[in-house]
Amino acid sequence: MKKEFAMTGNVQAFLSGMEVVATPVKGRVGMGLVFGEPGTGKTEMAQKYAADNDHPYIRATDIMSRRSLLSRIVAELGEQPEYKADDLFNQAVDMLIDHPRTLIVDEVDYLCRGGMVEVLRDLNDITNAPVVMVGMHQLDQKLKRFRHLYDRFSAVVRFRPFDPDDIASIAEQICEAKISPDGIKFIHERGHGKFRRTILWFSRAEQLAKRNNLEEITALHLASVRNGGRGGRP
Amino acid sequence: MNLLQSVIACLPAEPGRQTGCLNDLARCSGHDRRQVLRVMDKLCREGYLEETGDNPEPPRYGEVGPPRRNPTWRVVRDPGTRPAATLPRKTSLRSKLWKLIRAKRRFTKGDLVAPSGASEATVDEYVRQLEKHGHVRRTGRDGAAVTYMLVNLKQIEPPRGLFGGGS
């Protein structure tokens, strides 16, 4: 497998969404929402974007409280967190006013309980720093309960499962084995358009091509792997 | 121009001069009153301004609640001389790798190559040095690849001195 970051339609939508979020409208910078099916590459993309642009990346957890969320934000912004929640909030506000950076918060679903997401809205409201929320496939429904928050999303990006064309394009970019159109269709069916599963099938195709000196991998070859190498119909 | 810069641009430079009221500053900077008030509070705390008075606005027709604050300030020191707190941009390859490691916490070397854009050799050497200095440790295998785990979750800054120098 080539160690490259594949440019998929989802990745392009994410990048254009981030541009929209960072562009102020009447002086106000909005918020971004990224959600989609599991295994479609949201977290990978968010981590890459944060690392490339030196933005703080925070992964929310199930046991997180308002104080621990603020503490993580302050730590990621580069200061020693204070103890009290109020001091932490002021610390985060001061730092974001000084250096407005995009806050990327992953697994925001965990923050919907008890309205912890409102902390993020407050930070965006007061400091004008962009906030990007990343979460699971029903996150938009969950956030619609918070109408004041949902209104502030200037970009909503949905990560969709790949269609066969996407898979063919990714295969060209990162797979070292040539896969026939029926092979692509097979991978699409078996992988359900998920990035993680698609990569697994690419890796199987590469192994098959290498071991058997095959120029092109077809659906039949891939089906034999599925059956433990015993052959069989796709 | 960010929030802080656009508010500072609306303030007079000479010490002793009065600034406009909060509403004027919000209009001048093009930002929300609440955001401008936060910036002014910050500048007061840092000793650049001093609040001199408040001329609160009564609630508009149909609104409830206390009158809105509308303070004015006096310049103590020129806010334009405030040193721009420059945070060094950490876009070096090693800091990018460190950031990815912190985000993932448990990783293989292969997980870092594609998103960072670094070569396998660079990732290999960096992870080896991190392991040698006790910042990451091996936790097992994922197929053929060795998995590592970040040891100290509270370390935000990339470790220094891994390669003998200051980086």
Protein described:
The complex is a heterodimer of chains A (234) and B (167). Chain A has helices at residues 9-22, 42-53, 66-77, 85-98, 117-127, 139-143, 147-150, 164-174, 181-191, 195-212, 219-226; strands at 31-36, 57-59, 103-106, 131-135, 153-159, 178-179, 216-217. Chain A has 234 residues and is α/β, with parallel strands linked by helices. In chain A, α3 (66-77) packs parallel to α4 (85-98) and α8 (164-174) crosses α9. The longest helix of chain A has 18 residues, at 195-212. Chain A is elongated, with a radius of gyration of 21 Å. Chain B has 167 residues and is α+β, with helices and mostly antiparallel strands. Chain B folds into two domains: 3-81, Orthogonal Bundle (Arc Repressor Mutant, subunit A), CATH 1.10.10; 85-167, Orthogonal Bundle (Arc Repressor Mutant, subunit A), CATH 1.10.10. In chain B, the strands form two sheets. Chain B has a three-stranded antiparallel β-sheet with strand order 3-5-4. The model of chain B has no long low-confidence stretch (mean pLDDT 87). Classes of the chains: A alpha/beta (234), B alpha+beta (167). Chain A binds chain B through residues 3-5, 26-28, 44, 47-48, 50-52, 54, 57, 59, 75-76, 78, 93-94, 97-100, 125-128, and chain B through 2-4, 6, 29-32, 34-35, 38-39, 42, 85, 87, 89-91, 95-97, 99-100, 102-104, 110, 113-117, 120, 154, 156-157.
